[in-house]
Specification:
Mean pLDDT: 75
Low-confidence stretches: 1-5, 22-86
Number of strands: 12
Distance between the termini: 148 Å
Pfam families: Extensin-like_C
InterPro entries: Extensin-like_C
Order of helices and strands: HEEEEEEHEEEHHEEE
Helix content: 25-40%
Radius of gyration: 45 Å
Shape: globular
Keywords: Signal
Number of helices: 4
Length: about 270
């Protein structure tokens, strides 16, 4: 029994020692400060961004139509200044293209052209539009014709017919004659290269709209030709169509003739 009592005393002493040791250790752990968090710096080198490739868009190109005179090759709209070719040839500058001014025409009875240009085709909307018959007209008239094509004819064909104009049926340009081909009549503006007659239009879908048949044709053709007539009245001093007289039943006549003392009047029929 004495042995048992001593053993129990020893166990109590050992337990007390263990508890004391654990308390001391816990106190030491609680007293030790935790390290502060620091940002991570990896072994990474930041390179400057690579420059993006700078692609240069090619300048606007205008293909040279086959068989077209070099004088009719269009130039970009933003660079309309035309440098004369060798020989100091004079140029008639239009909207986006140019044509060479030929030697003046001196005809009989007051006929003639001061600054004649010869047109086999015109340029509108960046595309060549052929003429069924070449015409020779005054440079100033060619400039008015160019504006009418660009602003009136080409948009009207797309709007009313859904197509583009490929050729223009020309009826007359310079012609030394009296008005309406009447002998003894006053000199026609055609005799000055100051008039042009247009009889019809070939379209990109294969159709042809003529003034003679289309003036009272389908509603779309009527709207198309009426738009051309109205737009011409805002640009030329004389515009005559099928409603003017029997001499113009099959074509549109445009000229830059003088009307009135100050040449300020316009004739639109």
């Amino acid at each position: 029994m004495g042995y048992t009592t001593g053993a129990r005393a020893a166990l109590r002493t050992l337990s007390a020692a263990l508890v004391a040791g654990m308390c001391i250790g816990a106190a030491q752990v609680g007293a030790t400060p935790m390290p502060k968090a620091r940002p991570y710096f990896g072994n990474t080198t930041l390179l400057p961004p690579m420059p993006l490739p700078q692609s240069k868009l090619p300048a606007q190109q205008f293909p040279t139509p086959t068989g077209k005179p070099l004088s009719l090759v269009p130039v970009p709209i933003e660079n309309q200044r035309v440098f004369p070719p060798a020989g100091n040839a004079k140029m008639c500058v239009l909207r986006g293209w140019s044509v060479e001014v030929l030697e003046s025409v001196d005809g009989p009875g007051g006929c003639g052209i001061d600054q004649p240009v010869s047109l086999r085709s015109v340029v509108a909307g960046g595309q060549e539009i052929g003429l069924t018959m070449p015409v020779q007209i005054e440079c100033s008239l060619a400039q008015q014709l160019d504006g009418w094509l660009q602003d009136v004819a080409v948009p009207a064909a797309r709007r009313e017919l859904g197509v583009s104009i490929t050729r223009i049926r020309t009826a007359a340009g310079y012609a030394c004659r009296g008005r309406n081909n009447q002998r003894g009549a006053k000199l026609s503006e055609h005799g000055k290269g100051n008039a042009i007659d247009i009889a019809g239009f070939h379209l990109s879908d294969g159709r042809e709209v003529t003034v003679e048949e289309g003036w009272d044709g389908s509603s779309a053709e009527v709207r198309f030709l009426s738009s051309l007539h109205k737009g011409a009245c805002e640009r030329f001093t004389t515009v005559l169509g099928p409603d003017a007289d029997r001499y113009h039943r099959d074509h549109l006549h445009f000229d830059q003739g003088c009307h009135g003392k100050d040449c300020k009047y316009r004739v639109c029929k």
